[in-house]
Every structure is written in structure tokens, then in C-alpha cells.
Amino acid sequence: MKITVNGSERSIDLPPDTPLLWALRDGLGLTGSKYGCGMAVCGACTVHLDGVAVRACVTPLSAVGERAVLTIEGLSDDGSHPLQQAWIEADVAQCGYCQSGQIMGALAFLQRTPEPTDAQIVEAMDPHLCRCGTYSQVRNAVRLAATKLKAGG
Known about the structure:
- By secondary structure, this protein is of the alpha+beta class.
- The protein is built from 5 helices and 5 strands.
- Strands 2-1-5-3-4 form a 5-stranded mixed beta sheet, with helices on one face.
- The protein is globular and about 40 Å long.
């Protein structure tokens, strides 16, 4: 089976019912997306399919089809994407486990809502669980990223 991941067509030899998360991590060596709950609840595994945030732990490989997959590794080679920079500037990092999923969720949200209100940020980001409790820093980072993206990066 061939899938497009981070702009490159990749071949993968796994059963079609394999969760996309395991195809990415074990099949392609892209370990940025994390396994958290396996039930699409925590958001640690969030990736994009054609720009739409999905939970890769419950998305079967067969559901990808012709849609492009974007993972955290596809944002930038050097951490220079405005969302990654906002995460650093807002001191979001603690253990870091949930961050790739949160960043990918924030990207999809900001693409739909480029000038979000605080209430919209809370609504969009609170479904992404963080065991370290960095919710206020995440909200600050999303606000900062919205400003950076509006300014062109």
C-alpha cells in the first residue's frame, strides 16, 4: 500500500486494519505522534488527513486512501514552524508527551479559526489531555501562534 506522508509517497506493507498510528511509528519510523489512550480521547496521536485533525490510534490505514498525512515531523525540519516556536516561547514543555498531538490539533484549529477568541481556544484545545497540566501555557501558545501565523510566520 502507498500513502503520502509529509509530502512524500511511502510504501507500507501492513494490514489495512492497522491503526495509522502504528503504521507511522512502527512501519515508517515516524515516532513524533504518541500512543496515549488508544481510544481517541487524549489527543496524543493527533495527525492530519488532508488538513483535518484525526486521532491516528483509531484511524485504520485503510481509511487514509489518497489523502495526505501530515505528522509533527512534517511541520519543519528544524522546529521553526510558528506553532513550534510559540510552544517554546510560551514555555509549554514539561514532559512533552502530549505536545505533538496538541500542536497538530492547534494547527487544524488555527487553519479553521485564524483569529480565535479565548473561549474558542479553550473549546478547541481542552479535549487534548495533558498529564502535566500545562493548559494555560497551551492556551497562551495558541494565542501567540495565531498572531505569528497572521503576521506571516
